[in-house]
Design goal:
- It is an enzyme of class 2 (transferase).
- The chain is α/β, with parallel strands linked by helices and 423 residues long.
- It has 2 domains: 6-239, Alpha-Beta Complex (Spore Coat Polysaccharide Biosynthesis Protein SpsA, Chain A), CATH 3.90.550.10; 247-420, no CATH class.
- It has 14 helices and 10 strands.
- The protein is globular and about 75 Å long.
């Protein structure tokens, strides 16, 4: 069936489709309810994209005949949204998060937003309200959610003209987390000559329950900022009216983790007792420096507490990594003349794969270029190995992965990607 493009008739209600990526949250039925309960005008299509990694029962609330469910296999919200809009036909595509609560009159307000959009408008953003957690300070992850209320062009509630999505070839699937993929596509739509405006429709975005470790994982978003800078230049934050980031201070607090892990690995893989003692001293110096830096940054309140916690993880990481490295070197094929240093990196680092999602080059990580400058000259191989879902390669597969990385001779220095180990 062909969906009529009612935008060609002034005053008409434009046809629109709704795409909702989900990880199966129980709030999904609440997000869909205003779209199904006698909505006027009703969406031409409702597509829910199930982004859970493993097959399972249908997402909650998707049993209605008006809802179509697709699967994206756990590849992240950018991929899920990209798959969803390409499966629709209406001239406008509205993206919603699976945990937002649209106002009861959301559909009518959306229709007014779209009807008022001129031909030059490529996207219309809804207004997001985020209630703060009651009675306590928000965690780092919750503070990020609170920032959605003033953020520009977020896909928690964002309508794009189909022609704008086609002009930029949709979402960049390298963004694996729910972070920055919406900013990236907005900047590309602007670069294509469209304008973006704010509408009047409203949604409430709850602050999800997020504990301390979720906040640690949220620090991995710095890698997305690195990709944004590479794609859109230094001034990308100004274009979306966002204050300067804390990336430099985060690196100052966490870069030492990669150095300490690397120093510990060198201590285990060193060929002589003297080398091991020297490497151990370097690791201890790095740990002491990191602890002092973390305390100073906390006292100055210039870095989030979990960035400092990530840095504090240096000490246990530097103790455990040598055993892992030693085991890897001991089981590596005899054909490899040099000891191996293996740094297990998560795919969430947003490193561009060299051959597959499990073959990311850690030399692209911001903290990877300096800590192991002498690694290759010392005759040691360094690399990263991860499973397709970004988890460290387990058990006896580690040696095979390390050997493959060595044979491919990753660019030097290719280490310190373990700075994202806390993610």
């Amino acid at each position: 069936m062909t969906v009529p493009d009612r935008t060609a008739h002034p005053g008409a209600e434009p046809a629109y489709s709704v795409v909702v990526p989900t990880v199966g949250r129980p709030e999904l039925p609440r997000a869909l309810r205003p779209l199904l309960a006698g909505a006027d005008p009703a969406p031409a299509e409702i597509v829910v994209v199930d982004d859970r990694p493993a097959p399972g029962p249908p997402p909650p609330g998707t049993g209605h005949p008006a809802v179509r469910v697709l699967r994206s296999g756990g590849r992240g919200p950018a991929c899920a949204r990209d798959l969803g809009w390409r499966a629709t036909r209406a001239p406008w595509v509205v993206f919603l998060d699976d945990d937002v609560v649209p106002d009861p009159d959301w559909c009518a307000a959306l229709a007014a937003d779209l009807a008022g959009a001129g031909d030059h408008v490529g996207g219309v953003q809804g207004r997001i309200e985020v209630p703060p957690p009651p009675g306590r300070r928000p965690t780092d992850a919750e503070r990020g959610t609170l920032g959605l209320a003033g953020a520009a062009w977020i896909t928690a509630d964002m309508a794009y003209r189909r022609s704008a999505l086609e002009a930029v070839d949709g979402f960049d699937r390298r963004f694996r987390r729910a972070y920055r993929e919406d900013t990236d596509i907005a900047l590309r739509v602007l670069d294509a000559g469209f304008t973006l405006v704010r509408g009047r429709r409203r949604c409430v975005h709850p602050v999800r329950d997020a504990g301390l470790w979720r906040s640690v994982a949220a620090q991995a978003g710095n890698a997305d900022d690195v990709l944004m800078r590479r794609l859109h230049g230094r001034g990308w934050r100004d274009r979306v009216a966002e204050p300067p980031g804390r990336f430099r201070r985060h690196v100052a607090a966490t870069a030492a983790l990669g150095g300490a892990v690397a120093a510990g690995a060198l201590a285990a893989a060193a060929s002589s007792a003297a080398d091991r003692r020297a490497a151990a001293r370097r690791a201890a110096d790095r740990r002491a420096h990191t602890a002092g830096l973390a305390v100073a940054l906390l006292l100055l309140r210039s870095v989030s507490r979990t960035a400092a916690l990530t840095a504090a993880a240096t000490h246990p990481a530097a103790r455990t990594t040598p055993r892992r490295a030693a085991g890897t070197a001991a089981t590596a094929p005899a054909a490899l003349a040099a000891p191996l240093i293996l740094v297990l990196a998560a795919a969430a680092l947003l490193l561009r794969p060299r051959r597959s999602p499990a073959d990311a080059d850690p030399a692209q990580a911001p903290t990877a270029r300096r800590p192991l400058t002498g690694t290759r000259s010392a005759g040691r191989a360094a690399g990263a190995a991860a499973s397709p879902r970004g988890r460290p390669v387990p058990g006896n597969r580690t040696a095979r992965a390390a050997a493959a990385l060595s044979v491919r001779a990753l660019p030097a220095p290719a280490a310190a990607a373990a700075a994202a180990a806390a993610a």
